[in-house]
Design brief:
About 55% of the residues lie in helices and about 15% in strands. With about 190 residues, the protein is an alpha+beta fold. The chain folds into 2 domains: about 100 residues, Alpha-Beta Complex (50s Ribosomal Protein L17, Chain: A); about 30 residues. Helix 2 runs antiparallel to helix 3.
Length: about 190
């Protein structure tokens, strides 16, 4: 039975736990998806959904309450201006936890905590990404054409590193390579 057990303590003091959860909620609203452990994700989800509910209210007391908890003013503005309108017709369930597996270092179970988006939002973001990639490719092609013209004479004059020079040049024998010890410091 879970009588009188309100939340997970996460093996931290109260102030440390509050700071961690504030940082996680702020990062979730800023990046819209974060990777963390499952226990932290479940605790962050509780607080993030409350903040979104306050964002849906949109009045001054709600804005002050969220501003007291969220670490950055620009993230608070994003919550009220962008994120809260996504969920105007939705009564809860604003976030999703997607389990990823175990971490290599300590075998802690990790998960993505992300904001749930509608199909229209996903399609709009996909179109924006495609447009940005096309713009980037056009810029690279335009820049590559002018760079090739400028680099062509310089490449002929200077031999490549690590390659043998022309036959007329006499090369000296290479110096022996230095070994690295266990500490990563060069020796010898």
């Amino acid at each position: 039975m879970r009588h009188r057990k309100d939340h997970r303590k996460l093996s931290r003091t109260a102030s440390h736990r509050r700071a961690v959860l504030r940082n996680l909620v702020t990062a979730l609203f800023q990046y819209e998806r974060i990777e963390t452990t499952v226990a932290k994700a479940k605790e962050t989800r509780r607080l993030a959904e409350r903040m979104i509910t306050f964002g849906k209210q949109g009045d001054l007391p709600a804005r002050r309450h969220v501003a007291r908890f969220v670490m950055r003013p620009e993230v608070t503005h994003k919550l009220f201006a962008t994120i809260a309108p996504w969920y105007a017709e939705r009564n809860g369930g604003y976030t999703r936890i997607v389990r990823l597996g175990r971490r290599l270092g300590d075998a802690g179970e990790t998960a993505y905590l992300e904001l749930v988006k509608s199909d229209e939002q996903k399609e709009r973001e996909r179109q924006d990404r495609i447009a940005a990639e096309e713009t980037k490719e056009k810029a690279l092609k335009a820049g590559a054409g002018s760079k090739k013209k400028a680099e062509a004479p310089a490449a002929e004059e200077k031999p490549r590193r690590g390659r043998k020079g022309s036959e007329s040049e006499v090369s000296s024998p290479a110096a022996p390579s230095r070994k690295r010890g266990r500490t990563g410091v060069k020796t010898g």
